[in-house]
Specification:
The complex is a heterodimer.
Chain A (H helix, E strand, L loop, with lengths): L4 H4 L16 E10 L12 H16 L10 E4 L5 H9 L5 H6 L4 E4 L5 E5 L5 E8 L3 H18 L4 E2 L3 E2 L11 E8 L1 H5 L3 H10 L2 E4 L12 E6 L7 H47 L5 H16 L8 H10 L2 H8 L5 H17 L3
Antiparallel strand pairs in A: 1-5, 1-8, 2-3, 3-4, 4-5, 6-7, 8-10, 9-10
Chain B lengths: L12 E7 L2 E7 L1 H8 L11 H10 L23 H7 L7 H4 L1 H12 L14 H21 L3 H19 L1
Antiparallel strand pairs in B: 1-2
Helix pairs in contact in B: 2-3, 6-7
Classes of the chains: A alpha+beta, B mainly alpha.
Chain lengths: 354, 170
């Protein structure tokens, strides 16, 4: 059990709603997978081996080489409660896999939570860098620097032909996964989304929901990421995703201006209805919450709800998740209690605004 | 493209299954894939990319070339068997890549469209590869110079290539 801010505060700095194209792109992320040479991957490692992997990688953090990041946190997963792990997943700071399945799992976290290094996830080392708004190149630069720091101390499993070797063959080669989290309500409302998403999957990219693999796209939030990691350089992979995301942003923006010029009243009605419901409702399930928060987010960007700011919306995105609700209200809750607490939390946040 | 199962969500998973020359395609969304996963033996806890991979492995040509060397059944280093790998879709250690190399390239080709890494190289371990790539780059440039009849620069490049090649073999 810990009282540290990374489990108490919903909002990480990279979720502050700033950054380029933040009216469409919430955040950009790069993840690098690496393994230590001559050491079985976490899947086949015995407890002694995975413990020594953890100590070796935490040792790099101890050595002071990551001091450029500021006061870093080192957390062994065994120190955390199940609820705290869930909160870290909801904040996107660790993966569900690290939370639930890792042995001798650990986390190194930068003070503003933009860099998180996972140890003994599916691979020995997973370096993740998050940036607010549309900043995939910046995310890669930061993640790659951390990679270089680890490489000074650790012999990586690397093969001339296959590149960086990873436990899953879908990550081999560069070991990178680049993704952007996009809010695309206008493309959904105007029925263009399916056409665009299927085009995106044709060019080697994947589309997922807010919480990655296996999660549904709720609240008009879509995560677009690369599928190919082998045979293309990091620059090509990032540039490809950048160009496709750029076009999606433009499509979303033009759909939004079309909505506002052709059906302003209807859109404004929808936005203000959702604002009304969220400000007054006593029971709010997560699906309705994310849909209505999406309406409000759209309203803010169309200038229809000047009183709400994006930071509040990003905070609600995390603080209305099941784990975070339980953290805030300090009790174990069933789904019904959660829906009541969720409604209460949203009401109080919006009340300070209107 | 719409999901073939629910017809509502976009299809994000695309399977092509070829058994005895008969081709069947399946385009579904992740949530239907997860539901369908219940029907696929061995995927009780939902559908993941690993199940998809093992699916690809099962689709392998049922009549492999009898002249081809049979792939190592077991990784000598970590003890993972090929059957285990094709079930969970993940390797046990970096040596598995060598042990199962014969069956790996067709899989990588299908997943990535490629089998050879061209990206970042670790500074310490990747010295040789860096030199090799530098030689390739110089050779291309030399070719270009020759075509433009800039023989002086081409000769300089040739000398540099020879130096690097000597370094590699030495």
């Amino acid at each position: 059990m810990t009282n540290r801010k990374f489990v108490k505060q919903a909002l990480s700095q990279w979720m502050d709603g700033e950054g380029p194209d933040s009216e469409v792109v919430i955040s950009s992320r790069v993840r690098i997978a690496r393994n230590i040479r001559n050491m079985p991957f976490p899947l086949m490692a015995d407890p002694t081996q995975s413990h020594s992997v953890m100590e070796q990688l935490l040792g790099v953090a101890d050595s002071g080489r990551l001091n450029g990041l500021g006061q870093i946190e080192q957390i062994r997963l065994s120190e955390l409660t199940e609820l705290e792990k869930l909160v870290l997943v909801e904040k996107h700071l660790i993966s569900p896999n690290l939370a639930n399945e890792s042995r001798n799992g650990a986390l190194v976290l930068s003070p503003n939570e933009d860099i998180s290094v996972m140890i003994n996830e599916e691979d020995h080392l997973r370096i993740q860098c998050l940036c607010s708004g549309f900043q995939v190149h910046e995310a890669w630069d930061s993640a790659s620097k951390i990679d270089d720091i680890f490489e000074e101390q650790v012999d990586y499993a690397f093969d001339e032909k296959h590149g960086y070797l990873t436990s899953c063959p879908t990550n081999v080669g560069t070991g990178i996964r680049v993704s952007v989290m996009m809010h695309l309500p206008a493309l959904v409302m105007t029925g263009q989304i399916n056409r665009i998403l299927s085009a995106v999957t044709q060019v080697g990219l994947a589309v997922r929901g807010l919480y990655g693999e296996g999660s549904e796209a709720t609240g008009n939030l879509f995560q677009v990421s690369n599928q190919i990691t082998l045979g293309q350089s990091e620059q090509e992979i990032i540039e490809n995703l950048f160009q496709v995301a750029r076009q999606m942003i433009e499509h979303e923006k033009s759909a939004r201006s079309k909505l506002i010029s052709e059906s302003r009243l209807r859109v404004e009605d929808r936005v203000r209805r959702s604002f009304g419901v969220l400000s007054q409702a006593m029971i709010m399930d997560s699906k309705e919450a994310s849909q209505r928060l999406s309406d409000i987010r759209l309203g803010v960007h169309l200038g229809l709800l000047p009183e709400v700011d994006q930071t509040t919306l990003n905070e609600l995105l995390v603080s209305t998740q099941p784990g975070f609700l339980q953290m805030t209200f300090g009790e174990a809750m069933g789904p019904e209690d959660r829906d009541r607490s969720r409604a209460e939390l949203i009401r109080s946040r919006l009340a300070t605004i209107s | 493209m719409q999901c073939q199962e629910c017809g509502k969500r976009p299809a994000t998973l695309h399977f092509t299954k070829i058994v005895n020359g008969e081709k069947a395609e399946l385009h579904i969304c992740e949530s239907c894939a997860r539901e369908k996963g219940e029907l696929i033996p061995g995927t009780s806890s939902g559908f993941s990319i690993h199940n998809l991979l093992s699916g690809l492995l099962d689709f392998e040509n049922p009549n492999p070339n009898p002249m081809a060397k049979p792939p190592a059944a077991k990784c000598e280093t970590c003890g993972m068997t090929y059957t285990q790998f094709s079930k969970i879709g993940r390797f046990g250690c970096s040596h598995c890549y060598k042990q199962f190399s014969e069956r790996l390239d067709p899989l990588l080709k299908r997943v990535h469209g490629n089998t050879v890494h061209v990206g970042k190289v670790p500074k310490r371990a990747g010295g040789r590869l860096k030199t090799k790539r530098e030689i390739d780059r110089l050779k291309k440039e030399m070719q270009g110079r020759i075509e433009r009849e800039d023989f002086e620069t081409a000769a300089q490049l040739r000398d540099r290539i020879r130096e690097l090649e000597k370094e590699m073999s030495g």
